[in-house]
Amino acid sequence: MKLGGPRDTDEPEINLISLIDVLFCLILFLVVTTSFTQRSMLKLQLPQAEATAKAESGPPLTLLIDNEGRYFIGNNEVLKTDVSSLKEALVRVAGDDRSQPVVLRADGRAPHQSVVTALDALGQIGFVKISIATAPPARP
């Protein structure tokens, strides 16, 4: 015996509002906790100096030298450590702009020859605005 009339069947549905709220909170958390400063992936121990740096216009080209004498332009490693390979990598990254400032960030424990090779390559290419990154002296 059928009591009542024809019954409408409820369609099952997935409530997306709670899913959207969870995803929004996750995205908000990631945006707030993300650091937007560019930091080197290598842990460098910079040499110390007391002079302060002048502010340059435009983003500088960064050349890193680690404690083993390996070269990194930005986040890319230069596989060979000779002058010609370093010059090719610098020209590839910098293009034709030789007025661009260059920051040489060499580890304090890096071989001196690696720093001289980098300065030689930069000079041969034609860069004139070269600065060497240092750390302020430790205060007792």
Describe the structure.
It is built from three helices and five strands, in the order αβββαβαβ. The chain has 140 residues and is an alpha/beta fold. Strands 3-2-1-4-5 form a five-stranded mixed β-sheet, with helices on one face. α3 (112-125) links the parallel β4 and β5. It is elongated, with a radius of gyration of 28 Å. The mean pLDDT is 81.
Topology overview:
Blueprint lengths: L15 H18 L27 E5 L5 E3 L2 E3 L4 H12 L7 E5 L5 H14 L4 E3 L8
Parallel strand pairs: 1-4, 4-5
Antiparallel strand pairs: 1-2, 2-3
Helix pairs in contact: 2-3
In DSSP terms, counting alpha (H) and pi (I) runs of 4 or more, how many helices?
A: 3
For the record, the CATH architecture of the domain at 61-132 stands as: 2-Layer Sandwich
Terminal CA distance reads 94 Å
Strand content: 5-15%
Low-pLDDT windows of residues: none
What's the CATH topology label of the domain at 61-132? Nucleotidyltransferase, domain 5
